[in-house]
Design a protein that fits this description.
The protein is α/β, with parallel strands linked by helices. It is 42% helix and 14% strand. The protein has a nine-stranded mixed beta sheet, with helices on both faces. The chain is globular.
Length: 380
């Protein structure tokens, strides 16, 4: 029998905050890049400016206050402690909805979605929201043995929903959260009744390769770009997470650069020919995310999800659950509907958006809330 959830109040010691500021002030910087763009990584001048803000005007306590104000809880399921937010709507017709984040994400991704989905306006479907920290991320426990991959996390989240009284529920996710969401229907006795994803994991249909659509050519180009320019972090975390963990856990600037690069590369952040992360996600939100990873010291434990989960498989399993897909133009991996329906034969909702990227909940919260509502409405 699973014990009752316990309140988890976050209070980072002032000594840890002072230690962060001291480390930032003593950073040993490399020389500047040899190009005038981001193609060799985060530019020195940009990172120095952001690090200076992190060490001076940035206020972690404001982020900490928000987390505590939402009622963070923890529940032990088996040998794993799962931290989560449980936001109950006061609307009588609210439906339970599991929101799962990815890397380098956190429960903070859903800050703007919470009021949009739990409150809504007259006549809008509202939701009871359950937002867990992935094991090894944020304030969930760090797994103490191998084996905590996507299937295990999906099982833990399904058990969490049932422990909270939701025998049946819907689920949404992006990045790893999207993969976890796609795995939920594959569990025996899963309570998930339908899923909404922004990053469907599929393989191109060989039968279409001689007559590709523009959308499919774009998907192949995006995949090639990822392999050439964006996959280095993934290869490192999937092969040697412990090694990179030393650097990121010891150096706040290292952790900052490791994450902020993704807010540049994976967001829809070009404005007037200039691409900067804060064009898509404001600096405070970026620093909140990096601070959460820093203060929780989860660089290694979060990276291990790649090591646990990146294993070759013969074929992706078919997911028969009702499925909705919202494709944002700057998503990492893309696909056409006919490719997606090879794996997800019960697609009831499909939409391609005009703006937004991989961090849709941060970049386009209004749009994503509308997409989730429209998707779940299509299931009934």
């Amino acid at each position: 029998m699973t014990a009752a959830p316990k309140t988890l109040r976050i209070s980072i010691p002032e000594t840890d905050i002072n230690d962060l500021k001291q480390r930032l002030s003593q950073t040993r910087w490399p020389e500047a890049e040899l190009v005038d763009d981001w193609s060799q990584g985060v530019p020195l001048s940009y990172l120095q400016d952001l690090a200076a803000e992190w060490g001076s005007s940035y206020d972690w306590r404001a982020c900490e206050h928000w987390i505590n104000s939402q009622g963070l809880q923890t529940l032990r399921i088996g040998n794993q402690d799962v931290a989560f937010l449980h936001i109950r709507s006061d609307k009588p017709n609210a439906k339970p909805l599991l929101l799962s984040h990815g890397w380098p994400g956190s429960i903070l991704e859903f800050r703007e979605l919470i009021p949009r989905l739990s409150q809504g306006t007259d006549g809008e479907q509202t939701f009871h929201l359950v937002i867990p920290c992935l094991p090894g991320f944020g304030f969930s426990g760090k797994p103490q043995q191998t084996g905590t991959g996507v299937a295990t996390i999906a099982y833990l989240f399904d058990q969490l929903m049932k422990a909270l009284g939701y025998a049946e529920y819907f689920a949404h996710g992006g990045d790893w959260g999207s993969i976890i969401t796609q795995t939920l229907p594959l569990l025996p006795d899963s309570g998930v009744q339908g899923i909404h994803i922004t990053m469907p994991v599929v393989q191109p249909d060989p039968a279409t390769m001689s007559e590709l659509t523009d959308e499919e050519n774009d998907a192949l180009a995006a995949g090639a770009h990822y392999v050439r320019w964006d996959s280095g972090y993934s290869t490192q975390q999937a092969s040697r997470p412990q090694t990179i963990g030393y650097a990121l856990t010891d150096s706040p600037v290292g952790q900052l650069a490791w994450i902020v690069e993704k807010f540049w590369s994976w967001t829809d952040c070009e404005r007037d020919g200039i691409s900067l992360p804060e064009h898509a996600v404001d600096r405070t939100t970026i620093l909140d995310t990096v601070s959460l990873y820093w203060f929780s010291a989860t660089a290694a434990s979060s990276a291990r999800l790649y090591w646990e989960s990146f294993h070759p498989t013969e074929e992706l399993p078919i997911v028969n659950a009702p499925t909705g897909v919202s494709l944002f133009p700057k998503e990492i991996f893309k696909a056409s509907r006919r490719w997606v329906e090879q794996r997800f034969p019960n697609v009831t909702y499909w939409n391609s958006l005009d703006a937004g990227g991989h961090f849709a909940a941060l970049e386009q919260p209004d749009t994503l809330a509308q997409e989730i509502r429209a998707c779940i409405a299509s299931f009934t």
